[in-house]
Specification:
Layout: H1 2-6, H2 13-24, H3 31-57, E1 69-75, H4 82-90, E2 95-102, E3 120-124, H5 133-141, E4 145-149, E5 153-154, H6 157-169, E6 175-176, E7 178-182, E8 194-198, E9 202-203, E10 206-207, E11 210-214, H7 215-227, H8 240-245, E12 253-254, E13 261-262, H9 280-298, H10 307-310
Parallel strand pairs: 1-2, 1-4, 2-3, 6-12
Antiparallel strand pairs: 4-11, 5-13, 7-8, 7-10, 9-12
Helix pairs in contact: 2-3
Amino acid sequence: MLLNAMTTRKPHFLKVQFHYLLCTYPLRRSWRHKIWILAEAVRLLLGYAWLLITLRFATRAAPIGGKTCAAVLLTHNRPQNISLLVEGALRNGFVTKVIVSNSNPQVKVRDWVTSTDSRLLLVDETSRWQPGRRLVLARQTGAEYVLSIDDDIFFTPAQWRDFFSSLLADEDCPHGITGHLYWPGTTSSNGSPFHHVAGRETKVDVLIGAYAFTSQHLKRVFELAAKIGISDLSQVRNGEDILLSFSGTKRPRIHAIRPMLQCASTSLPGVALWKSDEQFWTERVSVFEKLREIQLTMGHAWSSKSKSESEV
């Protein structure tokens, strides 16, 4: 396993990315998609080069309207990615704290992050926490605003700023850059009734990958979790993003912020959770339906019941 090798030596970021690309080769069904790996490799090189340039020359953005936020980042299977995420966040003065939580006992996160910025807190967890850990850590920061991005998405400093600005412009709902529309009775390309949406300004039913939210949203997340029988969000492996998506007084929004770079393992079995768990989509449908029913009883029923309603 590549991850085991990374515990003894630190491969270059690009070397790991090219390894991920090669691993996708046998999973590609047509020769056209197999050959497309070459184009993806070129795009990866260009995106990485431009990201390094923007990190090197970006000026530190001041608090926006006097408001600041915390950033919460999780890492498990992709320790080689975390340094780029940390640097992007720390290039902004409105980010007052960056917490990196590493749930892989084979990895020491300090081996992968060289920054000594006083705003940075690196945590090697003693337990193998799940993705829901981000919400627990977000509450522990005590911050009014929180940004959290998965470790396969890379923002430039300016994109971090745009993301935070989107939240400040509308605090009634959590925000993201990618989402799903839930259309029961249909099947999307991922084999589920959750249809992928990205690259535009719109409302969605579920946010995925990147999250901007407030302390009030967090308060509601924990209340909703209790209502569906979840006592420890740190143990939630699948569905914490759905809980967060239901935390606003209206549907969550995504924005036309295209990451400068995305990890080549985004759809790789054994690395990406959604490609590694056969029950992934079944579990998500169950969580979504439970939360939708709760929202209906609470009088905040924003989620769609049909395709036509989702498009409004």
